[in-house]
Amino acid sequence: MYNSDNPLSDDFYRPSEWYVMGKTVHASRMIDLISRPVPDMLKPAYNFGGLSLVQIAEPYVNNWLRTRDSVGDMLHSFSLSGIMTDMSQALTGKRDSNYAKRAELFNRTRDSRGLLMLDKQKEEFFQFNTPLSGLDTLQAQAQEHMFFVSAIPSVKFAGLSPTGLNASSEG
Questions:
Q1: Which of 21, 64, 106, 127 is 20 to 30 A distant from 56 in Cα terms?
Q2: Which residues, listed in sequence order, are joined to residue 129 by a DSSP beta bridge?
Q3: Residue 117: which domain range?
Q4: Which residues of 43-64 are buried (b: 16+ CB within 10 A; e: fewer)?
Q5: How many domains does the chain have?
């Protein structure tokens, strides 16, 4: 039970009793430890306990998950390959199944374990590569943002050893 009628009262939005394991306990027997208080109007919605760390950290965790997935996607598709060929018949609207078959064959064999064969008279191979440097730094920074919310060092939070400043694993 809590008083929400009289804002001038000492027990305004302060529960007078709590229910603990199905029994009523007077509020004087409980210690309030609220590290992130919320406004009085929101206290019942947060069970008079304040904002939880999980709620504060959620956007940072979602950002790290999105960054992790993006780095994985970038590693999987860091290069774009293609074949320059005579497309004049295909662009005029004539249906030629050889172009579709050629594209399908190229897509099936384009990984580094496949064999690529070109007609040196009509085709030319090209490739655009995306640099991968710095992806590990971006992912590490996104992970560190999660640690900042809790104010716990990354060494303690996740067991990550610091880099730089002549830090080494040797005693």
A1: 21
A2: 79
A3: 82-127
A4: beebebebeeeeeebeebeeeb
A5: 3
